[in-house]
Input
Amino acid sequence: MGHDLWLDPLVGRGLAFISHAHTDHSRRHQVAVLTAETLALVRDNHRPREARVVAYGTPVQLGEAAVTLLPAGHMLGSAQLLFEHEGARLLYTGDMKLRLGHGRETPVPRADVLVIESTYGRPHFLFPEPDAALEELALLCRRALDSGVVPVLLAHALGKTQELMLALEPYGFSFALEPRSMPHARAYAGAGVDMPDYVELDPETESTRVVIAPPTGKVVIRRLRRYRTVLVSGWAQDREFSRLFGADLALPLSDHCDFEELVRVVERSGADQVYTVHGFSEDLARHLRKRGVRASALSATEQLAFAI
Output
């Protein structure tokens, strides 16, 4: 389209959209379009020199085009981008979660062209209903604590940790965070989120809280007296990946779409042309073509770097 707007590029650009605050999607761009929450959470050395903050559902002009950011369901501030110019509509999902629990789903606008993340773009990635998975996780945590065992949830330090805390709080849990997760919990609070009760993990004394740590945080975790680890990730359905982290259990409670959800996003968008990016992009594109959808996977060098 010739507008020089980059979508989650891997290197700094003059004008770019940052879909959410994870470091594989954010860079220090000259000008970045993003939500206020993403700006609050993005790492200091990834903050854009100039931020164009856009509220959900409010179209803004970008040259001769209109840009609208819509919730993506992935984490606080995550956004889809709808780009409209001369009657054409392009939708970029970024990382996205369709099923939000309690019967809620992330809305998908109609578009002519769809650029969709494909992290779990293989058919064996089929996740349980979020509510059922959360109930199972809460039960695991309660049984562990009642048995004098500390439940340790292995989850991404930014986004996944805080969303787990918020989801598990109604079950009556309090939390102890591995030190690398602490700044992100404070950032969530700084962005206006009322966070549950939490402290920084002291492995020498902890016995009554649910511990949450990054999957690579087991050096600290091993100092706990009695504990049980649970990898909380969509990758729980990939045995090789789960084995890498040596977790006692793995639960596929994800902040992304599973395979069937990705297909539903494509269907709901009504797009005539689909581009798949990130993850199993070739697999998803091939499956979509079998369903009669015009779909292409962007090459590895273009992953997360689509420009319009």
Summary: The longest strand covers residues 65-71.
